[in-house]
Amino acid sequence: MTSPAGLVAFCVPALALASPLAAQEASDPPSPFASSQEQTEPEPELDVPELGDAIDFEADQLTYDNEADTVTARGNVILRSADNSVRADQVVWDRGSGSIMATGNIRFVDDGGNQLYTDSLELNDQFETGAMSDLLLALRAGGRLAARSGARGEDGTVILTDAAYTACAVTTEDGCAKNPSWRITADRVTYDPEDSRVRFRGAMLELFGARILPLPGMTVRTDGSAVSGFLAPNVRISEVNGLELSGEYYYRLADNKDVTLGAYVFSEVAPMITGQWRQLTDSGAFQVTGFATVSSRVADFTGEPTTESDPRGYLFANGTFQFSPEWSLTGSVRVASDRTFLRRYDLSRDDRLRSTVNLERIDERSYLSLAGWATQTLRITADQGQIPVAIPAFDYRQILKDPILGGEVQLQANTLNLIREDGQDTQRAFAGARWDMRRLTGMGQIVTFTGLLRGDLYHTNDSLSTLTEIYRGTDGFTARGVATAAVDVEWPFVGEAFGGTQVLTPRVQLVASPDIRNLAVPNEDARAIDLEDSNLFALNRFPGYDRVEDGVRVTWGVDWSLTKPDWRIKTNIGQSYRFDEEGTIFPDGTGLSERFSDFVGRTEIRWRDYIQFTHRYRIDKDNLAVRRNEIDATVGSQRTYVEIGYLRLDRDIKTVEDLADREEFRGAARVAFGPHWSVFGSGVFNLTGADEDPTFEPDGFEPIRTRLGVAYNDDCIEFGLTWRRDFITAGDAARGNTFQLFFALRNLGFR
């Protein structure tokens, strides 16, 4: 079979291009509203009949042959009918037959925005296309369809012969024609303008000129909407499941809903099925995804692990609904049959699954939330009975319209109910008010005054089931009051430095609170305490509401930034001092347990889009030891880059299991070679030693996961091979190697 027109690409130095695909990419057509040559004669004033009520036209020259009953328009001819238009060098209208023949540099635009380019086109007086040759159809949704010839069928469809389709560019940046990375050839193509579909018969996928895959029943939408059909399969080889082949069929039920059904076939275990339902409603959208199979799993992780074969699966659903400009509902459900299913089948690396629901009302001055959540732990040694379920969690906030004493007042009411199957249950309710007044002095200082009053009521039972004593509180009802007053002063200085603009901002804050009954109530939401630059100036440096920092303290710090062409540098450092001599409820090692806190800071450096560097740190006030050292850096372009992440927590906290020391390194890199190829790799390594965590078996080095691969990527195709190795065995999710081929084609639904 000869190659279809327009897809054999070559570079020509002359003005003419044989390929209509290349011609479209190589140069823009002249404006249809400007003449391409000087008009040698004035436009004749002829009494010519109009081309029908539905068709308007304009041209440089117009002649009328009375004997032949034809109208001829020449030079930048434009015909319009509703949303359709034709531009050509010459148009001849035979009034007797109603035939309109257009020739020379034709561009026909239909009401869907698709553009047809050809040298010869026949239309009827209803503006319907007829015969054409050497044509190019540029679809509005992307992609180009070229053919040797085409004709209009009796049913209104356009039938193309010896055709080819591609979504790739067919010219280089210099305007030379080039072969597309992929194309689909077909003996016959049917284009139906009514339902916006292009159907292929005898379709064959070609990659880099090689015919590799037949595509029976292939269909493309010209309006960009989805079409039912098979998606490209995935191929993977893993240590535990063997060779894996997966494929899916996409079925479009209606314009607002679709379903995808798929199957995974493994050489070592039973197959797995999957399905996804997506739907758009009048008020929102939702989707439901599920996986199901039968395979062996570790049923008991205590003592000697036992293995049994059970039905296994995973359900994920989420949705958002907007009932009015103020009211909305969001929710998600994530449930797995067991703790190792997602990891074994490489669906997710999460160590917990959270299901939530949240009804919200938001307007300019108020916020209301009625929520609930439940968490399924996937950690091997965690006790599910100790994981709480929150039903309900209520929060309401209202900003008063009129200021009080020159400041803004926000009222808040909050309730929370936590239920555990095998642990402590807690109910909490509080109501409070916060007053903020911000002023700018004549010397440029920004002064903020804050006052906070809150009343809390707690009820808890079975507190002794909580292992950490400072988290328990007391059984029964407990009430407490919270009061805080603060003044915060910032004094920015702006000036020129190093060829740019610098801003130096000293900051001082004074916060005072009376003694608060912290240990009398349980701690459910304020456990992950650590002094950082982000909470140094917070009114309460505990996260959440269950713990409130009391006493009198002063905090100081300084921010500095430099902005110049291509560069931006920001850094800050600060410390706090507590006036009270008595001990605090902060655990030793958090940087806040003594009168002087540790030093905390952050530095950010950015040069263009090539270098991004962030360093967060906490330095011991006594011996200047680094207690927190966190680095995130990216160097390079989008195609060639290196990413580095490092975290070390050296806090030596012995009293709280949630704050154990850790050390971790993360790295990733991609190196491009040639115009389209690249190699890439990444790794996660646990560097925690026994001196940092005695329960950690590997002493100082344990790879968690590594990955290497090679990829090809151009404007319309991406494929590659990836090797990944997991070093951790979790039940039946065994450590080992995984190899995966990935493949994606633009505009064809290939992943």
UniProtKB/TrEMBL annotation:
Pfam families: LptD. Its main location: membrane. Residues 312-677 form the LptD C-terminal domain. Gene3D superfamilies: Lipopolysaccharide (LPS) transport protein A like domain. Residues 1-18 form the signal peptide. InterPro entries: LipoPS_assembly_LptD (IPR020889), LptD (IPR050218), LptD_C (IPR007543). It is found in: Cell outer membrane. It comes from the Bacteria. Residues 21-47 are annotated as: Disordered. Keywords: Cell outer membrane, Membrane, Signal. Component of the lipopolysaccharide transport and assembly complex. Involved in the assembly of lipopolysaccharide (LPS) at the surface of the outer membrane. Belongs to the LptD family. This is LPS-assembly protein LptD. It comes from Erythrobacter rubeus. The gene is lptD.
